[in-house]
Specification:
The chain is mainly β. About 20% of the residues are buried. The chain folds into 2 domains: about 80 residues, 2-Layer Sandwich (Alpha-Beta Plaits); about 40 residues, no CATH class. About 15% of the residues lie in helices and about 40% in strands. It contains 3 helices and 8 strands, in the order E-H-E-E-H-E-E-E-H-E-E. Strand 2 and strand 3 form a beta hairpin.
């Protein structure tokens, strides 16, 4: 399989296998209006398999690295200009996320009240990092 090289845009590499479409959804990239190449379940020496997302013409300031860190922690972003990678970015886990994910607790105030913004904070429990709702402390589900 051959995918032509990108002239200007971004390449999101090391996306967990099978999650490229979910990553695009969280990043609010509209596939019907954007030139995208998805490579899914590609071989990876580091992870076994991975997904790769190439987005033609997308400016690097349109990628929310906090959201990317939330859904694809090990991903890397390559900024491509004139056919060459000019910069590499690595997302980090944000300490707080707002308006990206929804609380799974049906009794949470964010689920029952209309104008309450969803917010989650990062916690570390026994070496495991997870996001918890600001209001009810329920663990976020992806």
């Amino acid at each position: 399989m051959e995918v032509t090289s990108l002239q200007n845009g971004i390449i999101i590499d090391h996306v967990p296998a099978g999650t490229a479409l979910k990553v695009l959804e969280y990043l609010k990239v509209d596939p019907s209006r954007t030139k995208i190449a998805l490579i899914m379940n590609a071989d990876s020496k580091r992870y076994g398999t991975k997904d790769i997302i190439k987005i033609e013409g997308m400016a690097d300031d349109r990628i929310d690295l906090d959201v990317l860190g939330l859904v694809a922690r090990n991903a890397t972003v390559g900024i491509v200009r004139d056919g060459s990678i000019v910069k590499k970015l690595t997302p980090t886990l944000p300490q707080h996320v707002s308006g990206v994910i929804r609380c799974p607790n049906p009794r949470c105030v964010t689920s029952t009240e209309r104008d309450v913004r969803q917010g989650f904070h990062l916690v570390t429990l026994n070496g495991h990092q997870e996001y918890r709702c600001d209001y009810c402390d329920e663990e976020a589900k992806f």
